[in-house]
TrEMBL record:
<keyword id="KW-0479">Metal-binding</keyword>
<keyword id="KW-0378">Hydrolase</keyword>
<feature type="domain" description="JAB">
    <location>
        <begin position="6"/>
        <end position="115"/>
    </location>
</feature>
<dbReference type="GO" id="GO:0008270">
    <property type="term" value="F:zinc ion binding"/>
</dbReference>
<dbReference type="GO" id="GO:0008235">
    <property type="term" value="F:metalloexopeptidase activity"/>
</dbReference>
<keyword id="KW-0482">Metalloprotease</keyword>
<dbReference type="Pfam" id="PF14464">
    <property type="entry name" value="Prok-JAB"/>
</dbReference>
<keyword id="KW-0645">Protease</keyword>
<dbReference type="InterPro" id="IPR028090">
    <property type="entry name" value="JAB_dom_prok"/>
</dbReference>
<protein>
    <recommendedName>
        <fullName>JAB domain-containing protein</fullName>
    </recommendedName>
</protein>
<dbReference type="GO" id="GO:0006508">
    <property type="term" value="P:proteolysis"/>
</dbReference>
<keyword id="KW-0862">Zinc</keyword>
<dbReference type="InterPro" id="IPR051929">
    <property type="entry name" value="VirAsm_ModProt"/>
</dbReference>
Length: 151
């Protein structure tokens, strides 16, 4: 049963492996206290666009939703990286997450990780407060680990 920190480790590995393009995916969970499951998704945008944006491939996204439903899971968090700039929720992130000013995925958080030079340096968990998205920085201890080749 993966913990939050184990799921974050998987998120970091996926997003760093996607660099220099934005990576993306979701964190799934069974209920409010169940284990976390990281489900990486392919960025469906072409290489030029994927340096500054992400999009789920619709068939893959549908498959994840069906898989989660079968396992009694819910999408708890959508994650993606910013390969340029900080981990803050960008204007484009807001437009995509709340078209027309209302959340597309109510109750779902967003995790944005800044990955300059291919390594996660900062992260922000973003949640809808009823009027807008508010970000909360995550502690750096999740991102200061050694490279995989060093035990």
């Amino acid at each position: 049963m993966p913990s939050w920190s184990e799921a974050l480790d998987e998120v970091v590995r996926h997003l760093e492996s996607a660099w220099p393009l934005e990576g993306c995916g979701v964190l799934l969970r069974v209920g409010p206290r169940g284990p976390w499951r990281c489900r990486p998704l392919r960025n469906a945008l072409d290489a030029r666009a994927a340096r500054t944006a992400y999009a789920f491939e619709p068939r893959e996204w549908l498959g994840v939703l069906q898989e989660a439903d079968t396992q009694g899971e819910q999408v708890a968090c959508v994650f993606h990286s910013h390969v340029e700039g900080g981990p803050g929720f960008s204007a484009e992130d807001r437009r995509q997450a709340a078209p027309g000013g209302q959340p597309l995925l109510p109750g779902v958080s967003y995790l944005v990780m800044a990955i300059p030079s291919g390594r996660v340096r900062a992260a922000e968990l973003v949640q809808w407060d009823g009027h807008d998205f508010r970000g909360h920085p995550l502690p750096g201890r999740f991102f200061s680990r050694q490279p995989a080749e060093i035990p």
